[in-house]
Structure formats: C-alpha cells, structure tokens
Amino acid sequence: MRKAAEINEHTPWQELTPGAEIYEPATSKLVNTGDWRTMVPVLLSDKCKHCLLCVPFCPDSSISVKDGKRGDFDLMHCKGCGICYKVCPFHAIEFVREEK
After folding, report:
1. Could you give the 3-state DSSP secondary structure of residue 71?
2. How does 2-38 read in b/e, with b if 16+ C-beta sit within 10 Å?
3. Domain presence at residue 1
4. What is the helix (H) or strand (E) element at residue 69, kind and residue range?
5. Contact yes or no for 98/39 (Cβ under 8 A)
6. Could you tell me if 37 and 78 are in contact, meaning their C-beta atoms sit under 8 angstroms apart?
7. pLDDT at res. 26
8. Running along the chain, 100 residues long, what does each successive block of 10 average in pLDDT?
9. The predicted structure's pLDDT at residue 36
10. Can you give the pLDDT at residue 85?
C-alpha cells in the first residue's frame, strides 16, 4: 500500500486502502485545507501585544510562535473559523472576506 503522501489523482484504485481503514497517522501538513476558507484572518501587528492567547484556541495550529512572539497565519491550513478573532483581547485580528 502507498502512504497517504504518495496518493494523488493518478493512483489506481487497486492501490487505495479499503474505505474507512487507516494504515498510518494523518497530518494536516499533507492537505492544503486553507482552500475551504471564505473569511481570512489578518494580523494587525501594531495592535498585537504577543499575549499568545489566540494560539491555543486555533484548532488548526495555524498561528506560528517564535521566540515568544506570534507570527503571521499559516493560510495553507487556516479554515477561517474566526476563533482567534473572537478571543483576541486587543482586537489585533481582523476578519475579511477572502478574494479568490
């Protein structure tokens, strides 16, 4: 059997696992789930106090942290749920309609 990372639209059906059987752990790094988004978060860095309260609330781990400071959003995996926007006490996150 092929690993999930090796499967694409050209993989013959005979090489796929039967439905609902998982042979390896999954990871969102294999799938660009950011395409599902209709609203996109925008960091207003001048308002951000790097309290990091938004980080543990992100269900997709789409907010990076380096050296105790939050980074920008990982838009490849952010689904635009708005939780970070709701929990930010400094209104440092804005939500706008995504233009595709």
Report:
1. strand
2. eeeeeeeeeeeeeeeeeeeeeeeeeeeeeeeebeebe
3. no
4. strand 69-73
5. yes
6. yes
7. 61
8. 72 76 65 84 96 93 94 92 96 91
9. 81
10. 96
Determine the structural domain holding residue 85 and report its residue range: 31-97
Determine the pLDDT at residue 1: 60
Q: What pLDDT was estimated at residue 28?
A: 62
Establish if 70 belongs to a structural domain.
yes
Cβ atoms of 84 and 57 within 8 Å: the answer is: yes
41 DSSP β-pair partners: 95
AA identity, residue 17: T
13 in any annotated domain: no
Q: What is the DSSP string of 21-47?
A: ---S---GGGS-GGGG-SEEEEE-TTT
Angle formed at CA 46 by CA 42 and CA 52, multiple of 5 degrees? 70
83 located within any domain: yes
Domain with residue 82: its CATH number is: 3.30.70.20
Instruction: Tell me the helix, strand and coil percentages in the chain, rounded to 5.
Output: 20, 20, 60
